[in-house]
Amino acid sequence: MVVATKQGMARVDELYQERSQRVRELKAEGKKVVGYLCIYPVLEMMTALDLVPYRVVGDMREPITKADHYMPPVVCPFLRSCLDLGLKGKYDFLDGMVTSHICDVGSSLSGVWNYTVKTPYHYHIDTPHTVHDTSLEQLRGLLGAFRNSLEEFAGKKMTDAMLTKAIVLHNEQRALVRELYELKKPDPPLISGAETIKVIKAVQSLPTGEGNALLRSVIAEVKTRKNGPVKKAARLMVWGSILDETAFIKMIENLDANVVMDDTCVGSRPFFDDVKLTLDPIDGLARHYLVDIKCPRTFRARDFYATKKNYMEDLKARFSYLADYARDWKANGVIVESVRYCDTHGYEVPGVRDYLKEVGLPSIYLEHDYTEGALAPLRTRVQGFLEIIG
Amino acid sequence: MTQEVKTRPLNRLKSMYALRAEVDKMYEAGGEAKAAGRPVAWVMLEGWANPILSAMDVVSVYPENYSSLCAAAKLAGPFLERAESEGYPTHLCGYARTCVGYSARMVELDGQIPPEAPAGGMPKPTLLVSSGEVCDARFKWFQSLGRYFDAPVWTLESPSPTARESLTPGTYERNVQFLTNELKQFVNFLEKLLGKKMDWSRLNFTGEGTNEINRLRWEINQLRKARPGPMHTRDFWSVMSSALYRGGADPTAIVEGHKKLYDEVKYRVDHGIAGINRPEKYRIAFEGLPPWHSLGFLDDLAERGWNFVCESAYSPRRPINIDLSNVSDPIERYVRSRYRSLADSIVDEFGPEEAPGVIAEVKQEGSARRLRLRHIREYQCDGVVLHVLLSCRAASSGLSLFSDQLLDVYKVPSLIIEGDIIDTSLFNPAEALRKAETFEETMEHYRKVRKDMGLEW
C-alpha cells in the first residue's frame, strides 16, 4: 500500500492539483473505483462494499470540445464539462458510474455517459422530487434495488451491519467537516472559503476513511497555523449551485471580504446533517438523501397538506437554516450564485432572496458560465455589493 | 389570360377547427367557474391529474398552454420582461416566465385578470397542481408562484426510471404502487381542500373518457404513416390541446371530435391526399417543442415540399388492452389502465420475435435506442428537425444524442434549429430557412445511402 507522505493542507493542495492520484493507486491495488455525480448517489452503500466513491466534477479551464457533439450549449456548463472530461478519457480509471435524478440535465447526462463514455458499471437512481411519505417509500425501494445491483457488481453481499458501519464512517466525515467549518467562525476565519473548497474536493477524491484522516490533519494544522486569512470588512455567505473550483470564491476573497459560510454542494450541503442510525439502515439513508439534504432539486414545503399557503412561512420553513448559518458564522451579506442554465437553482433565486431580505441579510445574485474568463465582470458587481453592505 | 390561383401550402383538416376551438372553452370555463365561486386549478400537463380534478368538479386551466397562446398571439413579450424584473433568470422556461409575469400583473391588479391577457385570461387559482413528470420546471415554477398566490401547491410525483432500471425485476410493480399511493394522497388532499368526497363513478367516466381519447389519437397517428402523409404536424399541434387539456372536462365532446378527425384522415389516406398542398418531397419529423410564435415557418417549408409527418412531443401512448376487472381499487385500476411496464411495451411495439433483441440492447447499452428511433423508421422520415430551445433543458439536452444515434442506425440526418417556445427574439426564421435549403442536399445524399444499405425508404 502506498502511503501519502504529505499531510494537512499540503496534501490537500496535492490532491486538488491531481485528484485521481490516490484512487489510481488504489485501483492498481485491485480496488474498484466508482464515480458519482452530484450528492444524491448513496455513498454509504459503496463504502460498505469496499468500493471507492469518487466524485465526478468538471474543469473550468478545459475548453468543452467533445461534449458539444452530445449535449447542446444551452444546458448546464458544469455537467457538459463533466461529460467532456469523460469523453476525453479523463475518467477512464472509473470502474463504475452512479448517477441519480438530480435535475433534467443530470438525468440526461446519465444516459449519454452510459452510451458514450461506457464506464463498465452504470447505475441511475430515480430519486423522487418531493418529500411526500409515498416518495420516501419509493426511495426505500429504489435503494433496495441499487443495493442489489451494487452487490452484483462488487461480487459480495452487503449486510445491514456492513451498511451501518459505513454510515457511521460517513457520519464521522460529516462531523469532521462541521468541525472544519467551526474554524470559519472566528474573525478572521482560520480557513478561507477557497481553501475550504479544496479540502472538500480532496476529501471527495479519497476513500472515506482516508478522507477522515486528511480532515483531522487539516483541522489540526489550521488550528495552529499562523498564515491563515486576514481580517476583512465583509463576512459573506455563498448560497447556490456547484462551485467545484476555487476561482469564483477567490474572486470574492481577493476583495475586502472573507467567505465564511456556504450552502453549496462542494461545501457544507452534503455534510451538515447526519444519517440517522435506524434498525433497517435503508430507512435512515432514504430519509437523509430525500429529506435532509437541502438542495433545490427537491420540492419541500412547510406543510404539504395545508389548504392555504403563507409565502413567508413557507420560505421560513425552507430557508431558516440560512439565517442560522448567518447568525452563527456572523455573515453580513450573501452571494446568491448559480451556474447558467441551472433551472433548479434559478427558480429558487427570487424566493431565497425574498427570505434573506426578510431576515435583514443583503444579497446579490451572480450568474456565471463555469469559465474563469467570465468572472471579471462579476468582480465589479461584488465590489459594488461590498460598498453597499459597508 | 388565366390567373393561377395559388393554394396555401398546408392542407388543413376541417375537423381540426372544432377541436381547436375546444381549448377556448377551457378559458371560458375557468372564467365562469371563478365568477360562480367554484374552484379553479392551474395544472401542469401530465397524465394523471385532469380526470381526477374533473371528477371533483375542479376546472383545470393549463399555464403551459396559456403561455403558448400568448406566444402565438405575440403577446408574451411584456410578461417575459416582467418576470425578468421580478428577478427570475432569463434562461428559465419561457412558459414559466410568461406565467410569472402574468401572475405578477395579476397581483398588481388585486387578483384581476390583466386586461392585455388574450383569450379572456386565466382566473386566480384556488389550487396549483405541479408535477414531477417530464421536467424540473414543472414543480419549481409552481413552487415559485407562492410569491404571488396563497393557493396551495400539490406536486404529483411520478417515476422516471432509465430504460435499463425499468427492466429490473420489481420496478414496474413498485412504480404502480408509488403512483397509486401518490394519487390517493392527492385525492385525500382534494377532499380536504374542497370539503367533499370523490365521486368514484365520475372518475371512472373521466378516466375511461381520456383513455378513449388517447386510443383515437393513437389510431390517427397510425394513419399518418401513409404516403403522402395525410396530417401535418401543425394540425397535430392544433388538436392535441383539446385532448390533453379538455379531455377530462368534456370527454364526450372530445371523443366525438376525434372520431370525426379519424374519419377525415382515413379518407385522405384512402384517396392519397396529403397534409400539404404541394408534392411531398421530404417526410420530416419534428423533435422538441414547437416554436409557437413562428409556426408559419413550417408553412414556408411546406412550400418546398417538406411534409412534417410525425413529432416527438405530445404523442399519444399505445393503448393498453388488458383485463383490469380483477383490480378492485379504483385508483390502482386507473393507474394500470395508463401505465405499462417497459418490457410489455417493447413486446407490444416490436412483437414477440424482435422484442428480446431490443430488451437485450437496453440491458447492454442502457437506453432503448431502437424504441426511441422507431417512429423515424415507421414514418419513413427523410430528415428530422431538432428544435433546440434556449429556455428548455428537458426538451433540448437529449437531442444531440438522438441525432447521433439516428444517423448511425437509420442514416437519417438532422437539422438543428435554435429557438424558443415563447421568446421570438431567439428565433431567426430567415436563417433557419437558409439552413433548411442546404439541408435538402443532405437528405438527398442519405436517401441514396439508405437505398444502398437496403433500408425500406
Explain what the structure shows.
The complex is a heterodimer of chains A (390) and B (457). Helices cover 48% and strands 12% of the residues of chain A. Chain A is built from 14 helices and 8 strands. In chain A, helix 5 links the parallel strand 3 and strand 4. In chain A, helix 7 runs parallel beside helix 9. Chain B is of the alpha/beta class. Chain B folds into 2 domains: 237 residues, 3-Layer(aba) Sandwich (Rossmann fold); 138 residues, Rossmann fold (3-Layer(aba) Sandwich). In chain B, the strands form 2 sheets. Chain B has a 4-stranded parallel beta sheet, with helices on both faces. Chain B has a 4-stranded parallel beta sheet with strand order 6-5-7-8, with helices on both faces. At the A-B interface, helix 5, strand 4, helix 6, helix 12 and helix 13 of A face helix 6, strand 4, helix 8, helix 16 and helix 17 of B.
Oligomer: heterodimer
- Give the count of helical stretches of chain A: 14
Helix share of residues of chain A? 40-55%
The largest contact between protein chains, plus residue counts on each side, is: A-B, 67 and 63 residues
Summarize the helix and strand pattern of chain B as letters. Answer: HEHEHHHEHEHHHHHEHEHHHEHHEH
Profile the largest sheet of chain B: 4 strands, parallel
The domain count of chain B comes to 2
Strands of the widest sheet of chain A, in order across it, are 2-1-3-4
Low-confidence parts of chain A, pLDDT < 50 over ≥5 residues?
none
Overall geometry of chain B comes to globular
